[in-house]
Write a structure and sequence with these properties.
Helix content is about 25%, strand content about 40%. The chain is α+β, with helices and mostly antiparallel strands and about 140 residues long. Strands 1-2-3-6-5-4 form a 6-stranded mixed sheet. Strand 5 (about 105-120) and strand 6 (about 125-135) form a beta hairpin. The protein is globular and about 45 Å long. The N and C termini lie close together (about 10 Å). The model has no long low-confidence stretch (mean pLDDT about 90).
């Protein structure tokens, strides 16, 4: 039986493979949360991809595909740099169409609303935020 796909891991792989994003971030794209050892170097360019729930576009069907909503949080040394990073990530994500990465077959990634920005409530780090929805196969390919 095929393994369930790690869609958050696949999204981080998409961003790490994108040249304009990689130029700014290196490997500082994280799934779920910012690692504790990374926090000591903040604020600097980093991205966190985290699942955020949402309604399934495949509900009521037997298709082995589904949608998942996720949030992208782009951090930067300044609010402007954080938003610039968010825009680079948005372009990388919305350019995905029928791509297999990290064992995941991704059909598309689309914005699920507008963006926002602010400062982290605990550490005052500048960030820019946007939600996306991804349509993907449930099983690894």
């Amino acid at each position: 039986m095929a393994e369930d796909v790690d869609i958050i891991g696949a999204v981080t792989a998409v961003l790490k493979a994108d040249a304009p994003v990689e130029t700014v971030l290196g490997t500082r794209v994280f799934g779920g949360e910012l690692p504790a050892d990374e926090a000591q170097h903040m604020p600097r360019a980093a991205v966190v991809i985290r699942p955020s729930g949402g309604v399934s576009n495949a509900q009521g069907s037997n298709v082995q595909h589904d949608t998942q909503r996720f949030d992208l949080v782009a951090y930067g040394a300044t609010p402007s740099k954080a938003d610039s990073l968010r825009r680079k990530c948005r372009r990388a994500l919305t350019n995905v169409e029928r791509l297999t990465v990290a064992g995941a077959l991704i059909h598309w990634i689309q914005p699920a609303g507008g963006f926002s920005s602010g400062r982290d409530g605990d550490a005052d780090w500048p960030y820019a935020f946007q939600s996306f929805q991804i349509y993907h196969a449930l099983n690894e390919v």
